[in-house]
Design goal:
- The chain has a single domain, classed as 3-Layer(aba) Sandwich (Rossmann fold), CATH 3.40.50.
- 31% of the residues lie in helices and 18% in strands.
- The strands form two sheets. Strands 1-10-9-6-2-3-5 form a seven-stranded parallel β-sheet, with helices on one face.
- Helix 1 crosses helix 2.
- The longest helix has 23 residues.
- The mean pLDDT is 95.
Length: 255
């Protein structure tokens, strides 16, 4: 695992997008296909904007899986992550993906739909996983305490108050009562099974999360801390997000 610190959110996102694109290119050259996981949220705007512009990627050989989604929220809702990915990623690619697999958070039989998607995800290894870290230190929607042990690819989880407040603060919902209390989330262990993780974490509001992820205890109370043991995980952050890291960490990892 390594950490790269950039001056601005824009530089951070561009670097993450370029890095992820190169990982996809190398995988396509080696295997002839690539499986990726795409995250959402305000932290991913610049990264995705860069990723879709990257040249020399045959997206028709790329299979995409969706990281998480709110329970009960229709795709038409402004906060829907399916809507986000279709508009900010899928629609901007130069050609259709081989497959685009979305989390059906509003499925009538949600558990059956989640289990089916999980079985498909486990068919082959995930090559590149794009994630971020929440203000409470979550990855995907695995809020603390995170289940580090489950082998299930996707979980139906309860969202804590800090997580729900973050969604409100980012402008996705008009009031806290409108923020769903549950979500479908890829599990931490499933994320860790990816060959490569590209972790994009900009903004001052993520400074505490970065502190506990990189310098706190590796614990279910700090969900993202598990990425410290991944053999190929690159984190991209900006200076505001790195503000609470020790000087030793900054000096070792900074750019």
């Amino acid at each position: 695992m390594s950490l790269s610190i950039y001056k601005t959110k824009q530089e951070c996102g561009i670097a993450a997008g370029k890095y992820g694109a190169e990982k996809i290119r190398k995988t396509l050259a080696e295997k002839g296909e690539c499986r990726i996981i795409i995250a959402t949220g305000a932290s991913q705007f610049e990264m995705l904007s860069q990723l879709v512009q990257e040249p020399d990627i045959d997206w028709s050989k790329v299979t995409m899986f969706h990281l998480d989604e709110y329970v009960g929220l229709p795709e038409s809702h402004p906060a829907s992550f399916r809507k986000y990915i279709k508009e900010r990623f899928v629609a901007k690619l130069p050609c259709p993906l081989k497959e685009a697999n979305f989390v059906p958070g509003d499925a009538t039989d949600l558990q059956a739909a989640v289990d089916k998607l999980g079985e498909h995800l486990l068919d082959k290894v995930v090559d590149v996983c794009f994630i971020g870290i929440g203000e409470n230190g979550h990855i995907a929607f695995n809020d603390p305490p995170c289940d580090f042990d489950t082998e299930k690819p996707y979980l139906i989880v309860n969202l804590d108050q800090v997580c729900r407040q973050q969604q409100l603060g980012e402008g996705w919902f008009p009031t806290i009562d409108d923020v769903p209390k549950q979500a479908v989330s890829m599990s931490a262990r499933m994320i860790m099974k990816s060959r490569c993780i590209v972790n994009t974490v900009p903004d001052a509001r993520k400074a505490y999360a970065m502190k506990i992820t990189f310098e706190g205890d590796m614990s279910p109370m700090h969900p993202a801390s598990i990425i410290r043991i991944h053999p190929d995980c690159e984190t991209f952050c900006d200076l505001p997000a790195a503000a609470q890291l020790s000087q030793i960490t900054k000096d070792f990892c900074g750019k």
